[in-house]
Specification:
The complex is a heterodimer of chains A (210) and B (210).
Chain A (H helix, E strand, L loop, with lengths): L1 H47 L5 E12 L5 E14 L7 E11 L4 E9 L4 E8 L50 H32 L1
Chain B lengths: L1 H8 L14 H7 L3 H32 L2 H7 L3 H23 L1 H7 L10 H11 L4 H31 L1 E2 L2 E2 L9 H4 L1 H24 L1
Antiparallel strand pairs in B: 1-2
Helix pairs in contact in B: 1-8, 3-5, 3-7, 3-8, 5-6, 5-7, 7-8
The chains are: A alpha+beta (210), B mainly alpha (210).
Protein backbone atom coordinates (compact mmCIF):
# COMPACT_ATOMS: atom_id res chain seq x y z
CA UNK A 1 0.00 0.00 0.00
CA UNK A 2 2.76 2.31 1.03
CA UNK A 3 4.49 1.49 -2.21
CA UNK A 4 1.50 2.30 -4.43
CA UNK A 5 1.06 5.60 -2.62
CA UNK A 6 4.69 6.50 -3.16
CA UNK A 7 4.58 5.68 -6.87
CA UNK A 8 1.36 7.65 -7.35
CA UNK A 9 2.73 10.70 -5.56
CA UNK A 10 5.96 10.74 -7.56
CA UNK A 11 4.16 10.31 -10.87
CA UNK A 12 1.60 12.97 -9.98
CA UNK A 13 4.29 15.48 -9.10
CA UNK A 14 6.15 14.80 -12.34
CA UNK A 15 3.02 15.23 -14.49
CA UNK A 16 1.88 18.32 -12.56
CA UNK A 17 5.19 20.05 -13.13
CA UNK A 18 5.07 19.10 -16.82
CA UNK A 19 1.50 20.40 -17.16
CA UNK A 20 2.40 23.68 -15.49
CA UNK A 21 5.40 24.28 -17.76
CA UNK A 22 3.38 23.41 -20.87
CA UNK A 23 0.53 25.73 -19.89
CA UNK A 24 2.96 28.60 -19.40
CA UNK A 25 4.61 28.09 -22.77
CA UNK A 26 1.24 27.61 -24.46
CA UNK A 27 0.01 30.98 -23.22
CA UNK A 28 3.17 32.63 -24.54
CA UNK A 29 3.19 31.02 -27.97
CA UNK A 30 -0.57 30.91 -28.67
CA UNK A 31 -0.98 34.59 -29.74
CA UNK A 32 2.14 34.30 -31.88
CA UNK A 33 0.78 31.19 -33.63
CA UNK A 34 -2.52 33.00 -34.32
CA UNK A 35 -0.55 35.94 -35.71
CA UNK A 36 1.38 33.66 -38.05
CA UNK A 37 -1.86 32.16 -39.34
CA UNK A 38 -3.38 35.60 -39.89
CA UNK A 39 -0.25 36.83 -41.66
CA UNK A 40 -0.35 33.82 -43.94
CA UNK A 41 -3.98 34.38 -44.87
CA UNK A 42 -3.35 38.07 -45.47
CA UNK A 43 -0.34 37.31 -47.64
CA UNK A 44 -2.38 34.84 -49.69
CA UNK A 45 -5.20 37.39 -50.06
CA UNK A 46 -2.82 40.04 -51.35
CA UNK A 47 -1.31 37.55 -53.75
CA UNK A 48 -4.62 36.60 -55.32
CA UNK A 49 -6.03 40.14 -55.33
CA UNK A 50 -2.91 42.28 -55.89
CA UNK A 51 -4.77 45.56 -56.59
CA UNK A 52 -7.06 45.50 -53.60
CA UNK A 53 -6.05 47.82 -50.76
CA UNK A 54 -8.81 46.90 -48.38
CA UNK A 55 -10.15 43.40 -47.85
CA UNK A 56 -12.96 42.61 -45.46
CA UNK A 57 -14.25 39.21 -44.48
CA UNK A 58 -17.88 38.24 -44.93
CA UNK A 59 -18.89 35.92 -42.16
CA UNK A 60 -21.93 33.90 -41.31
CA UNK A 61 -23.07 32.50 -38.03
CA UNK A 62 -22.93 28.73 -37.76
CA UNK A 63 -24.81 27.27 -34.81
CA UNK A 64 -22.80 24.79 -32.76
CA UNK A 65 -25.13 22.09 -31.45
CA UNK A 66 -24.68 19.51 -28.75
CA UNK A 67 -25.78 15.90 -29.01
CA UNK A 68 -29.49 16.67 -28.49
CA UNK A 69 -29.58 19.31 -31.18
CA UNK A 70 -29.73 22.19 -28.74
CA UNK A 71 -27.83 25.22 -30.00
CA UNK A 72 -25.00 25.97 -27.63
CA UNK A 73 -23.61 29.07 -29.27
CA UNK A 74 -23.07 30.51 -32.71
CA UNK A 75 -19.66 30.37 -34.30
CA UNK A 76 -18.54 32.91 -36.84
CA UNK A 77 -17.23 31.38 -40.02
CA UNK A 78 -15.60 33.23 -42.88
CA UNK A 79 -17.48 32.58 -46.12
CA UNK A 80 -15.53 34.81 -48.46
CA UNK A 81 -13.71 38.13 -48.60
CA UNK A 82 -14.74 41.36 -50.31
CA UNK A 83 -11.99 43.44 -51.86
CA UNK A 84 -12.13 47.22 -52.20
CA UNK A 85 -9.81 49.66 -53.95
CA UNK A 86 -9.30 51.63 -50.72
CA UNK A 87 -10.77 51.56 -47.20
CA UNK A 88 -13.19 54.45 -47.85
CA UNK A 89 -14.56 53.55 -51.23
CA UNK A 90 -17.53 51.30 -51.75
CA UNK A 91 -16.20 50.32 -55.15
CA UNK A 92 -16.08 46.52 -55.11
CA UNK A 93 -13.10 45.10 -56.93
CA UNK A 94 -13.72 41.44 -56.41
CA UNK A 95 -13.88 38.58 -53.98
CA UNK A 96 -11.56 35.99 -52.50
CA UNK A 97 -12.40 32.63 -51.04
CA UNK A 98 -10.82 29.40 -49.89
CA UNK A 99 -11.41 26.21 -51.87
CA UNK A 100 -10.70 22.87 -50.26
CA UNK A 101 -10.52 19.35 -51.62
CA UNK A 102 -9.05 15.93 -50.96
CA UNK A 103 -5.95 15.42 -53.07
CA UNK A 104 -3.88 12.29 -53.50
CA UNK A 105 -2.54 12.17 -49.96
CA UNK A 106 -3.71 15.33 -48.22
CA UNK A 107 -6.28 18.07 -48.06
CA UNK A 108 -5.40 20.83 -50.50
CA UNK A 109 -6.45 24.37 -49.63
CA UNK A 110 -6.36 27.06 -52.27
CA UNK A 111 -6.96 30.79 -51.95
CA UNK A 112 -8.74 32.11 -55.04
CA UNK A 113 -9.29 35.71 -56.08
CA UNK A 114 -12.01 36.65 -58.56
CA UNK A 115 -13.25 39.94 -59.96
CA UNK A 116 -16.87 41.05 -59.79
CA UNK A 117 -17.68 39.18 -62.99
CA UNK A 118 -16.37 35.90 -61.58
CA UNK A 119 -13.14 35.80 -63.61
CA UNK A 120 -10.21 34.32 -61.67
CA UNK A 121 -7.54 36.93 -60.86
CA UNK A 122 -5.03 34.55 -59.33
CA UNK A 123 -4.82 31.49 -57.10
CA UNK A 124 -2.42 30.38 -54.39
CA UNK A 125 -2.08 26.96 -52.80
CA UNK A 126 -1.97 27.58 -49.06
CA UNK A 127 -1.93 24.05 -47.70
CA UNK A 128 -0.91 20.74 -49.21
CA UNK A 129 1.11 17.67 -48.25
CA UNK A 130 1.20 15.87 -51.56
CA UNK A 131 4.02 13.65 -52.80
CA UNK A 132 7.28 15.63 -52.99
CA UNK A 133 8.36 16.04 -56.58
CA UNK A 134 4.97 15.10 -57.98
CA UNK A 135 1.81 16.54 -56.41
CA UNK A 136 3.79 19.01 -54.34
CA UNK A 137 4.74 20.73 -57.62
CA UNK A 138 1.20 22.09 -57.62
CA UNK A 139 2.43 25.16 -55.75
CA UNK A 140 4.58 26.03 -58.73
CA UNK A 141 3.59 29.38 -60.20
CA UNK A 142 6.22 29.91 -62.89
CA UNK A 143 4.99 31.90 -65.89
CA UNK A 144 2.54 29.74 -67.81
CA UNK A 145 3.88 28.64 -71.18
CA UNK A 146 1.05 26.35 -72.21
CA UNK A 147 2.77 22.99 -71.78
CA UNK A 148 3.49 22.66 -68.08
CA UNK A 149 1.41 23.05 -64.95
CA UNK A 150 1.48 26.46 -63.36
CA UNK A 151 -0.99 28.14 -61.05
CA UNK A 152 -0.74 31.07 -63.47
CA UNK A 153 -2.84 29.15 -65.98
CA UNK A 154 -5.92 29.74 -63.80
CA UNK A 155 -5.65 33.50 -64.32
CA UNK A 156 -8.50 34.77 -66.51
CA UNK A 157 -10.50 31.53 -66.34
CA UNK A 158 -14.21 31.45 -65.48
CA UNK A 159 -16.12 28.71 -63.68
CA UNK A 160 -17.10 26.65 -66.72
CA UNK A 161 -13.55 26.57 -68.06
CA UNK A 162 -12.22 24.84 -64.97
CA UNK A 163 -11.50 21.31 -66.11
CA UNK A 164 -8.20 19.48 -66.38
CA UNK A 165 -7.04 18.22 -69.77
CA UNK A 166 -7.78 14.59 -68.88
CA UNK A 167 -11.42 15.60 -68.35
CA UNK A 168 -11.55 17.47 -71.64
CA UNK A 169 -10.72 20.93 -70.33
CA UNK A 170 -7.69 23.11 -70.86
CA UNK A 171 -6.10 23.20 -67.42
CA UNK A 172 -2.76 21.47 -68.02
CA UNK A 173 -2.35 18.92 -65.25
CA UNK A 174 0.91 17.94 -63.53
CA UNK A 175 2.52 14.95 -65.22
CA UNK A 176 2.12 12.02 -62.84
CA UNK A 177 -0.18 13.90 -60.48
CA UNK A 178 -3.49 14.17 -62.27
CA UNK A 179 -5.42 13.61 -59.05
CA UNK A 180 -3.77 16.58 -57.38
CA UNK A 181 -4.39 18.82 -60.40
CA UNK A 182 -7.97 17.64 -60.70
CA UNK A 183 -8.63 18.23 -57.00
CA UNK A 184 -7.41 21.81 -57.18
CA UNK A 185 -9.36 22.55 -60.35
CA UNK A 186 -12.58 20.89 -59.22
CA UNK A 187 -12.49 22.28 -55.69
CA UNK A 188 -12.26 25.81 -57.10
CA UNK A 189 -15.09 25.10 -59.54
CA UNK A 190 -17.35 23.62 -56.86
CA UNK A 191 -16.67 26.47 -54.47
CA UNK A 192 -17.45 28.98 -57.23
CA UNK A 193 -20.67 27.14 -57.97
CA UNK A 194 -21.90 27.47 -54.39
CA UNK A 195 -20.53 30.94 -53.76
CA UNK A 196 -21.47 32.82 -56.93
CA UNK A 197 -25.25 32.71 -56.26
CA UNK A 198 -24.61 33.92 -52.70
CA UNK A 199 -22.37 36.72 -53.85
CA UNK A 200 -24.67 37.83 -56.65
CA UNK A 201 -27.79 39.08 -54.74
CA UNK A 202 -26.38 42.39 -53.50
CA UNK A 203 -25.40 43.22 -57.08
CA UNK A 204 -28.94 42.54 -58.28
CA UNK A 205 -30.33 44.71 -55.55
CA UNK A 206 -28.01 47.50 -56.57
CA UNK A 207 -29.13 47.13 -60.16
CA UNK A 208 -32.76 47.33 -59.10
CA UNK A 209 -32.12 50.40 -57.01
CA UNK A 210 -30.40 52.10 -59.90
CA UNK B 1 38.85 12.91 -21.01
CA UNK B 2 35.91 10.58 -20.50
CA UNK B 3 33.39 13.39 -21.02
CA UNK B 4 35.05 14.09 -24.34
CA UNK B 5 34.85 10.45 -25.38
CA UNK B 6 31.15 10.33 -24.39
CA UNK B 7 30.66 13.28 -26.71
CA UNK B 8 32.71 11.89 -29.61
CA UNK B 9 31.18 8.39 -29.62
CA UNK B 10 27.77 9.60 -30.82
CA UNK B 11 29.21 11.15 -33.92
CA UNK B 12 30.89 8.14 -35.48
CA UNK B 13 31.54 5.09 -33.32
CA UNK B 14 27.98 4.86 -32.00
CA UNK B 15 26.22 7.04 -34.55
CA UNK B 16 22.50 6.60 -33.78
CA UNK B 17 21.44 6.22 -37.41
CA UNK B 18 24.32 4.37 -39.06
CA UNK B 19 25.60 2.33 -36.10
CA UNK B 20 22.71 1.84 -33.68
CA UNK B 21 20.09 1.99 -36.49
CA UNK B 22 17.76 3.90 -34.16
CA UNK B 23 15.12 6.42 -35.19
CA UNK B 24 15.06 5.37 -38.83
CA UNK B 25 11.42 6.37 -39.33
CA UNK B 26 11.95 10.14 -39.10
CA UNK B 27 15.20 9.68 -41.02
CA UNK B 28 13.31 8.19 -43.96
CA UNK B 29 10.62 10.82 -43.81
CA UNK B 30 12.42 14.13 -43.45
CA UNK B 31 15.68 13.57 -45.31
CA UNK B 32 14.25 14.89 -48.58
CA UNK B 33 16.06 18.21 -48.26
CA UNK B 34 19.01 19.52 -46.27
CA UNK B 35 16.98 22.30 -44.64
CA UNK B 36 14.47 19.73 -43.36
CA UNK B 37 17.36 17.60 -42.10
CA UNK B 38 18.91 20.50 -40.17
CA UNK B 39 15.54 21.49 -38.67
CA UNK B 40 14.71 17.96 -37.61
CA UNK B 41 18.24 17.40 -36.29
CA UNK B 42 18.11 20.58 -34.22
CA UNK B 43 14.67 19.74 -32.81
CA UNK B 44 15.76 16.21 -31.90
CA UNK B 45 19.02 17.40 -30.36
CA UNK B 46 17.14 19.91 -28.21
CA UNK B 47 14.68 17.29 -26.97
CA UNK B 48 17.48 14.79 -26.42
CA UNK B 49 19.57 17.27 -24.44
CA UNK B 50 16.65 18.50 -22.31
CA UNK B 51 15.32 15.04 -21.55
CA UNK B 52 18.80 13.69 -20.71
CA UNK B 53 19.36 16.59 -18.29
CA UNK B 54 15.99 16.18 -16.58
CA UNK B 55 16.18 12.39 -16.41
CA UNK B 56 19.70 12.52 -14.99
CA UNK B 57 18.65 15.14 -12.39
CA UNK B 58 15.49 13.21 -11.48
CA UNK B 59 17.51 10.10 -10.81
CA UNK B 60 20.00 12.09 -8.73
CA UNK B 61 17.11 13.57 -6.74
CA UNK B 62 15.59 10.16 -6.09
CA UNK B 63 18.92 8.74 -4.95
CA UNK B 64 19.20 11.64 -2.46
CA UNK B 65 15.71 11.64 -0.96
CA UNK B 66 14.67 8.00 -1.14
CA UNK B 67 15.86 4.94 0.71
CA UNK B 68 17.28 2.04 -1.30
CA UNK B 69 13.90 0.32 -1.16
CA UNK B 70 12.20 3.45 -2.42
CA UNK B 71 14.58 3.74 -5.34
CA UNK B 72 13.90 0.18 -6.30
CA UNK B 73 10.15 0.73 -6.37
CA UNK B 74 10.49 4.02 -8.23
CA UNK B 75 12.29 2.04 -10.91
CA UNK B 76 8.91 0.50 -11.86
CA UNK B 77 7.54 3.81 -13.08
CA UNK B 78 10.68 5.15 -14.73
CA UNK B 79 9.41 4.60 -18.29
CA UNK B 80 6.16 6.58 -17.77
CA UNK B 81 8.20 9.34 -16.16
CA UNK B 82 10.67 9.46 -19.06
CA UNK B 83 7.82 9.58 -21.55
CA UNK B 84 6.13 12.47 -19.71
CA UNK B 85 9.42 14.39 -19.70
CA UNK B 86 10.10 13.67 -23.38
CA UNK B 87 6.54 14.43 -24.50
CA UNK B 88 6.60 17.75 -22.64
CA UNK B 89 9.77 18.87 -24.38
CA UNK B 90 8.47 17.76 -27.77
CA UNK B 91 5.29 19.76 -27.22
CA UNK B 92 7.38 22.78 -26.28
CA UNK B 93 9.42 22.40 -29.48
CA UNK B 94 6.24 22.07 -31.53
CA UNK B 95 4.62 25.16 -30.04
CA UNK B 96 7.76 27.30 -30.29
CA UNK B 97 8.43 26.14 -33.83
CA UNK B 98 4.94 26.89 -35.12
CA UNK B 99 5.03 30.28 -33.39
CA UNK B 100 8.43 31.45 -34.59
CA UNK B 101 9.45 29.19 -37.51
CA UNK B 102 6.17 28.54 -39.36
CA UNK B 103 7.78 27.50 -42.65
CA UNK B 104 9.96 24.87 -40.99
CA UNK B 105 7.11 23.59 -38.85
CA UNK B 106 4.98 23.23 -41.96
CA UNK B 107 7.53 21.18 -43.87
CA UNK B 108 8.32 18.94 -40.88
CA UNK B 109 4.64 18.60 -40.06
CA UNK B 110 3.66 15.44 -38.23
CA UNK B 111 7.27 14.38 -37.63
CA UNK B 112 7.77 16.91 -34.84
CA UNK B 113 5.11 15.37 -32.56
CA UNK B 114 6.48 11.97 -33.53
CA UNK B 115 9.84 12.80 -31.90
CA UNK B 116 8.09 11.58 -28.73
CA UNK B 117 8.33 8.03 -29.98
CA UNK B 118 11.76 8.44 -31.55
CA UNK B 119 13.69 5.57 -30.03
CA UNK B 120 16.95 7.51 -29.88
CA UNK B 121 15.56 9.75 -27.17
CA UNK B 122 13.95 7.12 -24.98
CA UNK B 123 16.95 4.92 -25.68
CA UNK B 124 19.41 7.50 -24.36
CA UNK B 125 17.21 8.38 -21.37
CA UNK B 126 16.81 4.74 -20.40
CA UNK B 127 20.19 3.42 -21.46
CA UNK B 128 22.43 6.31 -20.49
CA UNK B 129 21.04 9.33 -18.63
CA UNK B 130 19.24 7.30 -15.97
CA UNK B 131 22.49 5.59 -14.97
CA UNK B 132 24.99 8.40 -15.34
CA UNK B 133 25.65 11.80 -13.72
CA UNK B 134 24.65 15.09 -15.25
CA UNK B 135 27.78 16.17 -17.14
CA UNK B 136 28.39 12.92 -19.07
CA UNK B 137 24.64 12.81 -19.85
CA UNK B 138 24.85 16.27 -21.41
CA UNK B 139 27.91 15.25 -23.44
CA UNK B 140 26.15 12.07 -24.53
CA UNK B 141 23.02 13.98 -25.64
CA UNK B 142 24.94 16.58 -27.60
CA UNK B 143 27.13 13.93 -29.25
CA UNK B 144 24.16 11.75 -30.17
CA UNK B 145 22.21 14.78 -31.37
CA UNK B 146 25.03 15.96 -33.59
CA UNK B 147 25.55 12.42 -34.86
CA UNK B 148 21.86 12.16 -35.73
CA UNK B 149 21.90 15.56 -37.44
CA UNK B 150 25.04 14.76 -39.44
CA UNK B 151 23.58 11.41 -40.56
CA UNK B 152 20.37 13.17 -41.64
CA UNK B 153 22.35 15.79 -43.56
CA UNK B 154 24.49 13.12 -45.22
CA UNK B 155 21.38 11.28 -46.43
CA UNK B 156 19.55 14.48 -47.37
CA UNK B 157 22.59 15.70 -49.32
CA UNK B 158 22.40 12.79 -51.78
CA UNK B 159 18.60 12.73 -51.91
CA UNK B 160 18.19 16.45 -52.50
CA UNK B 161 21.04 16.61 -54.99
CA UNK B 162 19.79 13.72 -57.11
CA UNK B 163 16.07 14.02 -56.40
CA UNK B 164 15.53 17.74 -56.92
CA UNK B 165 18.87 18.89 -58.36
CA UNK B 166 19.29 21.44 -55.57
CA UNK B 167 21.29 21.89 -52.36
CA UNK B 168 19.71 23.96 -49.57
CA UNK B 169 17.17 25.06 -52.16
CA UNK B 170 19.83 26.42 -54.56
CA UNK B 171 19.72 24.94 -58.02
CA UNK B 172 23.18 23.57 -58.76
CA UNK B 173 22.70 20.82 -61.31
CA UNK B 174 21.86 23.21 -64.16
CA UNK B 175 18.81 23.36 -66.36
CA UNK B 176 19.48 20.19 -68.34
CA UNK B 177 19.40 17.93 -65.27
CA UNK B 178 16.33 15.78 -64.93
CA UNK B 179 15.68 15.00 -61.25
CA UNK B 180 15.56 11.34 -60.24
CA UNK B 181 12.10 11.33 -58.65
CA UNK B 182 12.74 8.00 -56.96
CA UNK B 183 15.31 9.62 -54.70
CA UNK B 184 12.87 11.92 -52.91
CA UNK B 185 10.26 9.19 -52.58
CA UNK B 186 10.58 6.69 -49.69
CA UNK B 187 12.51 4.04 -51.71
CA UNK B 188 15.26 6.61 -52.29
CA UNK B 189 15.75 6.92 -48.54
CA UNK B 190 16.12 3.15 -48.14
CA UNK B 191 18.62 3.03 -51.00
CA UNK B 192 20.73 5.88 -49.62
CA UNK B 193 20.72 4.55 -46.04
CA UNK B 194 21.68 1.10 -47.33
CA UNK B 195 24.53 2.51 -49.37
CA UNK B 196 25.88 4.52 -46.45
CA UNK B 197 25.67 1.51 -44.11
CA UNK B 198 27.50 -0.61 -46.66
CA UNK B 199 30.18 2.04 -47.07
CA UNK B 200 30.75 2.34 -43.32
CA UNK B 201 30.88 -1.43 -42.87
CA UNK B 202 33.33 -1.73 -45.75
CA UNK B 203 35.57 0.93 -44.19
CA UNK B 204 35.42 -0.93 -40.87
CA UNK B 205 36.31 -4.27 -42.44
CA UNK B 206 39.21 -2.75 -44.32
CA UNK B 207 40.53 -1.22 -41.09
CA UNK B 208 40.26 -4.54 -39.31
CA UNK B 209 42.14 -6.42 -42.05
CA UNK B 210 45.02 -4.00 -42.24
Amino acid sequence: MNNILRLSIVLTIVTLVAAFVLAEIYSVTKPQIELQKLAKTREALHFVLPNAQHISAVTRKVPVRDGDGVTLYEKEEIMFYRAFADPDSQQLMGYAFKAEGNGYSSVIETMVGIDTAGVIQNIKIILQKETPGLGALAENSDPFTGKKWSTQQFVGKIMDELKVDKDGGDIISITGATITSRTITNSIRDELKTLLPQIAPPQDQQAEEN
Amino acid sequence: MSVMSEFIKGIYKENPVFRLALGLCPVLAVSTSISNAIGMGAATTFVLLSSNIIVSLLMLLFSKILSEDGQKSINKIRIPMFIVVIASFVTIVEMVMSAYFPILSESLGIFIPLIVVNCIILGRAEGYASKNPLIPSIADAIGMGIGFTLALIAIAFLRELLGSGTLLGQNIMGGGFKPVLLMILPPGAFLVIGLYLALLNWLDLRKKES
